[in-house]
Amino acid sequence: MAENIHPIFDTILSTDQKETLLGQKSCVVWMVGLSGSGKSTLARALENALHERGFLTALLDGDNLRTGLNNNLGFSEEDRTENIRRAAEAARLLAGNGVITICSLISPLNSIREMARTIIGDKYVEVFIDCPLEVCESRDVKGLYAKARKGLIPNFTGIDSPFEAPGNADVVVKTAEQTLEQSLNELIDGILPRISSAAANAGNPLGS
């Protein structure tokens, strides 16, 4: 099958051309952290904030992806890896078309995150939503930790499946120590310099 595949990447419009049209620089904001750390809440807040500033974004949330693109995957180590691989490939395609892509995924292992970074390349921006397990569990917005403690959800990250905290994230947001507004402002400060394009904005009022 592979010998009959003929990619046309070298003949389609370039990322630079798409970015100039949109008046922005694309990137993939890869948000990682435990369930309950605030990833989804911050991802939605970031998307809204960037939209208000005239940036075109796409939000890939882990639960949303598992209802469609990844609905045939479970939570074994193999399936978790494939879940991230597919998400990273989708994010790469979006960023390649000039879109600022926000990914909210637990991404528990260093090896998984390194795979995503390799797929996405220099557009990859890792954001660690740093929140202690006990705080995440005390929130338990979805009731998942309670079910995991009862053995109703096997391989649950932080309980009976490991989470390796990133050691070299591009942005770290400590959601247990500050308000949502403070966390969002910190996140925006880390992202804006990467997506603003003075040259592109000069010809496109959306980027101002």
Can you lay out the helices and strands and say which pair or pack?
Blueprint (H helix, E strand, L loop, with lengths): L14 H8 L5 E5 L6 H14 L4 E5 H4 L11 H20 L3 E5 L5 H11 L3 E7 L2 H7 L4 H6 L21 E4 L5 H16 L2 H4 L7
Parallel strand pairs: 1-3, 1-4, 2-3, 4-5
- Helical stretch count? 9
In total, the number of strands is: 5
Q: What oligomeric state best describes the polypeptide chains here?
A: single chain
Q: What is the CATH superfamily classification? A: P-loop containing nucleotide triphosphate hydrolases
Distance between the termini: 47 Å
Low-confidence stretches: 198-208
CATH level-3 fold name: Rossmann fold
Radius of gyration: 18 Å
Biggest sheet layout? 5 strands, parallel
Mean model confidence by pLDDT: 89
Strand order of the largest sheet: 2-3-1-4-5
CATH architecture: 3-Layer(aba) Sandwich
The 3D shape can be described as globular
Helix and strand element order:
HEHEHHEHEHHEHH
Helix and strand content put the structural class at alpha/beta
What attributes characterize this protein structure?
208 residues, 9 helices, single chain, five-stranded parallel sheet, 12% strand, alpha/beta, Rossmann fold, 5 strands
How would you describe what is shown here?
With 208 residues, the chain is of the alpha/beta class. The protein has one domain (14-193): P-loop containing nucleotide triphosphate hydrolases (Rossmann fold), CATH 3.40.50.300. The chain has 9 helices and 5 strands. It has helices at 15-22, 39-52, 62-65, 77-96, 110-120, 133-139, 144-149, 180-195, 198-201, and strands at residues 28-32, 57-61, 100-104, 124-130, 171-174. The protein has a 5-stranded parallel beta sheet, sandwiched between helices. Helix 2 (39-52) packs across helix 8 and helix 4 (77-96) packs parallel to helix 5 (110-120). The longest helix is centred in the middle third of the chain and has 20 residues, at 77-96.
